[in-house]
């Protein structure tokens, strides 16, 4: 996009999250979003999608968790309306059905990601990679990330979401060392409430001084609501 030539980051559309990331998702970077089920990975990636679309970027969103219809509906319930972007072709959604026995899911996915880049997509989301790697040897998973990283060095921005249980500690260390940013999500109990915490475990170029955790709740009809630190600490 013309207006984006001078930008170096992609805003997530959420000021607090942008701040923790040194302005947003670095252009041409690879980001890993990791957390347990219900920790807010999808909501966060949907929020980031919205920020990127409004920043004028072209997106391709691969999902193993939704159909086009259910994703549009899910995002609407967070007051995110992607229909115009879909109709304009600025957002392309790819629901993936992963058959257990399918042999080379990762290389098929990689080809699809490459093809989207060639079609002019600036940014790729994969939510979630988990079903694609359940039976994959660690080396092959790592190779996938290496190849994504190569696409990033050619200018693409890639965000991969993965469930914490899908990668063991050793593999996680190796993946995150390849990534430019690593966002770790968890659910925390604060008094009676369950809140989400997003930790910026790693990000290229951001200052660590301000603290690197953002707490939030997911409010129906509103979306991510940031909880001030004093309240999050109970
Ligand atoms: N539209 C919504 N309205 C209210 N709560 C929601 C909505 N979407 C997601 N949530 C809640 O937000 C939390 C995080 O969901 P999600 O981002 O889908 O988790 P993950 O992708 O990490 O499994 C869950 O507790 C879920 O119930
Ligand atoms: Mg999810």
Written description of the protein model:
With 234 residues, the protein is α/β, with parallel strands linked by helices. It has a single domain, classed as Rossmann fold. It has helices at 15-20, 41-54, 68-76, 83-87, 105-118, 130-133, 138-153, 169-178, 229-232, and strands at 9-10, 25-26, 30-35, 59-63, 91-95, 123-127, 157-163, 181-190, 193-203, 213-219, 223-227. The protein has a nine-stranded mixed beta sheet with strand order 5-4-6-7-3-8-9-10-11, with helices on both faces. A two-stranded antiparallel sheet has the order 1-2. The structure holds adenosine-5'-diphosphate (ADP) and magnesium ion. Magnesium ion (MG) binds next to helix 2.
Set down the secondary structure blueprint:
Elements: E1 9-10, H1 15-20, E2 25-26, E3 30-35, H2 41-54, E4 59-63, H3 68-76, H4 83-87, E5 91-95, H5 105-118, E6 123-127, H6 130-133, H7 138-153, E7 157-163, H8 169-178, E8 181-190, E9 193-203, E10 213-219, E11 223-227, H9 229-232
Parallel strand pairs: 3-7, 3-8, 4-5, 4-6, 6-7
Antiparallel strand pairs: 1-2, 8-9, 9-10, 10-11
What is shown here, in short?
This protein is 35% helix and 28% strand. The chain has 234 residues and is of the alpha/beta class. The strands form 2 sheets. A 9-stranded mixed β-sheet has the order 5-4-6-7-3-8-9-10-11, with helices on both faces. Strands 1-2 form a two-stranded antiparallel sheet.
- What global shape is seen? globular
The biggest sheet amounts to: 9 strands, mixed
Tally of alpha and pi helices: 9
Strand elements, count:
11
Q: CA-to-CA gap between the ends?
A: 44 Å
- Please tell me the CATH architecture by its name: 3-Layer(aba) Sandwich
Oligomerization state: single chain
Strand composition percent: 25-35%
User: Quick one: CATH class?
Assistant: Alpha Beta
**CATH topology name:** Rossmann fold
User: Which strand order spans the largest sheet, edge to edge or round the barrel?
Assistant: 5-4-6-7-3-8-9-10-11
Backbone structural class:
alpha/beta
Gyration radius (Cα, Å) is: 17 Å
Run of helices and strands? EHEEHEHHEHEHHEHEEEEH
Which ions, cofactors or small ligands are bound in this entry?
Answer: adenosine-5'-diphosphate, magnesium ion
